[in-house]
Amino acid sequence: MAFSLSTGGSDEEEVISAINTTPLVDVMLVLLIIFLITIPVVVHNVPVKLPAEVNVPTKTAPGNITLSVDRDGQIYWGVQPVRNTQELVNRLETESVKIPQPEVLIRGDQDARYDSIGKIVFACQRAGILKLGFISQPPARGG
Description:
Blueprint: H1 22-42, E1 65-69, E2 75-77, E3 80-81, H2 85-96, E4 104-108, H3 114-127, E5 132-135
Parallel strand pairs: 1-4, 4-5
Antiparallel strand pairs: 1-2, 2-3
Helix pairs in contact: 2-3
């Protein structure tokens, strides 16, 4: 606390009782800087091993079934067009009883409607196919 005495011409001594806050502000700024420097060092992350990005090429086994859908919604078994979903279900039912059961891989055109792909998924479910996968192309890097 600082006191100031005036040395005026009068005998009355005037006391100014104001707190000098400059040292307080200096100490607070030093503490703030210390906390800003030490907090990132103190904070620890849980040590986990994150998976690395790996692009695994599709291994096409001879028994796998590749179904494709073009932008118009036409379904293809390999390269042969399928007339309707009932024909697709019938063909999938004959494949679903094989041991080991083949995996159905769906290739959908980027502009194909979702219901066209959904028809294939539903047909696989109705036929009892247990292994279903989607083939996609990873986005181009860079750019």
